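Quick one, T. Sequence first:
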Amino acid sequence: MSQEQFFQRHQETLEHAVSAIKSRDYWAAYPENPSPRAYGETAAADGEAAFNAHLGKAFQLEMPGTTGEIAGEVSPYGIEMGVSYPKVDFDQLIPAMKQEVKAWRDAGPDVRAGICLEILERLNKRSFEIGHAVMHTSGQGFMMAFQAGGPHAQDRGLEAVAYGYRAMKEVPAEATWTKPQGKHDPLVMNKKFHIVPRGVAVVVGCSTFPTWNTYPGMFASLVTGNPVIVKPHPASILPAAISVKVAQEVLKEAGFAPHIVSMVADTLDAPVTKELATHKDVKVIDFTGSSFFGNWLEQNATQAQVFTEKAGVNTVIIDSVADIKAVARNLAFTLSLYSGQMCTTTQAIYIPRDGIKAGDSQMSFDEVAQALSVATSKFLGDNDRACMVLGAIQAPATVARIKECESLGEVVLASEKREHAQFPNAEVHTPLILKVDASDIETYSEERFGPVSFLIATDSTAHSMALANQVISEKGAITLGVYSTDEDVLDQAEELAMDAKVALSVNLDGGVFVNQSAAYSDFHATGGNPAANASLTDTAFVARRFVVVQSRRHV
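Structure tokens:
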């Protein structure tokens, strides 16, 4: 297929995506239901077989500068991975990628967008394979790994392509400039406007969402003309490697050098991210991970445009509710999903110490705490369902953190270790819920990554909002939830959200949860508080990846 034919093949999908980011209504290009009707009768078995075929093998990619192999992934579910990956000298790789910038730049927005959409379509067809790879590197349950690692990540990638394509297309390729000069002939100039990429881009992946947090930066850079190096987390390399291989196959078919998309893998014992990120020819960096390293990148990788998503203290404020059981069920799912190992999971829940109004009755603080504890216990009562929802703890440090946090407050719900029927070596743990006083701000204002949350007794809802504003402004947050039956309180919540620059969800008690984010409609992070300096995805996320170079001459 020619370069232009890729665009023609996917043009309708791209137009739908551009329309969706404008309307912000529900739309999805890739089916989230792993059904045979959507993916084919044999897709599930074929995908699992494809995943198993990687185990114990050397993963092949086409990249200059390959000097050997590295390995080290450990499945949170306890299976033997044994996959090795190319070890790359990026001092050889980056110059080779720079040589391809002109060809990729001159291909133009249409060709690049078409190739990006072809990559995404092929990734979608391999969603079961990627789902197993995400599951066994991140610890997510399979359904979540399939959806978040497959179609949801692909939709986020397409969303980035749509924003990038729209931003580039808003710049005309040529223009004639005519300035009247009264009785004299007008001044007339021809002007050309060139979309010029910044250069080699690096996407630093995270261990918990190795595709969902990688695809936006990867495709935003690629569609705007930048060659991309994916630098996966050492614990979650396989999903990234599959993604890079698919991209290389499409690029090669289209007549481009496959290493326009490359991968630099490393190990926990021998990390290379600092050296890679500060390389003089790296001009764009996307990072998801800890505040410590995100801040380091912002301060030290000064030769590049740096986009970071870091840690924060996600928050819920409970003022009053119509139905406490519905609210508690909703929050129980939020706290349980993937054992709280999400950048959007609620950690701080503010409740007036004098209690709340629930329907026609009054509930004490302890009664609200008990309702949440009971709802979480019931939700996780069936062990098979619990293991599917909780997944496995990705890192040993997170398991240790659960134990360390038990002494930080009064235990409302103790964390339990569960046995996974299929994977007996998996570390599966239920949420730990603690009760603390508002004065213990040092305790609940520090991010405690994993299934740990705090019920915070405050003097009033106004006090809750003031504390939330302070903590989010200082420490950051991606999500804020507020429950109230009072419209004045909800108006105040809107003001709080704008002041702290955090996304707000109001009275969620059904099938939408505060820690979920929908492509094309929800902006993931705002870039306005310490949790992130960018948003997935808005125009600013893509527009800084290219510059416009103009030339002009008299007619």
